[in-house]
Amino acid sequence: MRDPLSVVTDAFTSFLFGKVETTRLPVRTSTGQAQAVYLPTAAPGLGDSGVIIGREVYSGKGYIYDPFQLYGQQLPAPHWLVLGESGNGKSALEKTYVLRQLRFRDRQVVVLDAQGEDGVGEWNLVAQELGITPIRLDPMAALDHGIRLNPLDPSITTTGQLALLRTIIEVAMGHGLDERSGFALKVAHAYVNETIVERQPVLSDIVECLRHPEPESAEAMNVAIDDVRAWGLDVALVLDRLVDGDLRGMFDGPTTVGIDLDAPLIVFDLSHIDRNSIAMPILMAIVGVWLEHTWIRPDRKKRIFLVEEAWHIINSPFVAQLFQRLLKFGRRLGLSFVAVVHHLSDVVDGAAAKEAAAILKMASTRTIYAQKADEARATGRVLGLPRWAVEIIPTLTPGIAVWDVNGNVQVVKHLVTETERPLVFTDRAMTQSSADLNDDALRAAELEAEERAAAFVEQHVGDAESTVA
């Protein structure tokens, strides 16, 4: 029952002013609902130090990312996975990211460029702009004194050499070496390193030793010399492909002198290699191990190792094992590994599912461009993306991607400056379409993408817990 004094006060107020002051009910809301309505507060930014990527589509805030600045409390590993269909802006993102990273004097970048047109790799224009000549690995050019990388380079430890030789053979054979073949390889490798001191040992020395093993090797194991020769025959046939077969010239000689490992950008042009042949994973394994022992050093520089067509690495259990070690080793020495893959199903459903999962786990940053709905759902399950992000991936327009930085999920529009545009849009169709669009059309496309994002947010305001990353 109301207090009599309140009744009298209300009556007097009504008589004097002609109305009664009403009491408003308190507004009750949760933090999650407030964040869903006002998305600029939904998730903290990644800081204000690093490389500018673009802007967040929902809030309009600038988006800055740098694995070296974030490594530690915000980012457990500096490695990065980039996914998406062709034509959605992956290449433009990679190139602008590298160009912007190189503005820092303590940064170095190596790129394995597996794509290209007109006889040059996709990174050729970027390299030219920086005054750098790509290292072109081409079997035909290698025969005419082209670039060579020696798997038995003395700069690689003997343990690293043997592991690399095993990987080359296992990739080519499609299965692991048995104990007898592994023993024959080990004996041949040890003999070559012990007896050849006046020059760099090369693969042809290993092949010769496998075909004609030393009697001492057989005697040490108390087996016949013919047995040792038989054990190493398959190994010799595989390595012979690198010496006299279709891959000859690139790996069967001393490492080419003059490769500048101190340059800010080092581009390995692999565009002349058939991307669907076993040559590509073999080549990536050799380049990766060679870089591990020659390029990564315990100094203060921050290094980025970007690999196009990285499914050749992740999808091969033998190559993936080598790169797992490189990634673990590199974290202590300031290495950020960037793997560019079209479809996650290319790697998680293959023979190297276990190894692929281990590498994906090391990638604390994931950037996903537009994918078909089925592919987006599969990607979301593997990467543990929130439901709203999985639903929006098929609707993304070129240049816009879902970024997941250790659980901080945002939709980001990548911005390219006019200076960068002719360097990063190297595909003819992309270049032509960009030239034909006028400024009004570009702004209209941006507004359409932002309106679609805003509509999506409004639709999901009620589901605050699943909307906020």
Search tags:
single chain; 469 residues; Rossmann fold; 2 domains; eleven-stranded mixed beta sheet; two-stranded antiparallel sheet; 23 helices; disordered C terminus
Question: What can you see in these coordinates?
Answer:
With 469 residues, the protein is of the alpha/beta class. The chain folds into two domains: 40-147 and 260-467, Rossmann fold, CATH 3.40.50.300; 158-244. The chain contains 23 helices and 13 strands. It has helices at 4-17, 31-37, 67-70, 90-101, 124-129, 139-143, 158-173, 179-195, 203-211, 215-221, 225-231, 233-244, 279-294, 311-314, 317-331, 345-348, 353-362, 373-383, 387-392, 421-424, 428-436, 439-459, 464-467, and strands at 51-56, 62-65, 79-83, 107-113, 116-117, 120-121, 135-136, 265-269, 302-307, 335-341, 363-368, 400-405, 408-414. The protein has an eleven-stranded mixed beta sheet with strand order 2-1-13-12-11-3-10-9-4-8-7. A hairpin with a 2-residue loop joins strand 12 (400-405) and strand 13. The longest helix has 21 residues, at 439-459. The chain is elongated. The protein starts with a helix and ends with a helix.
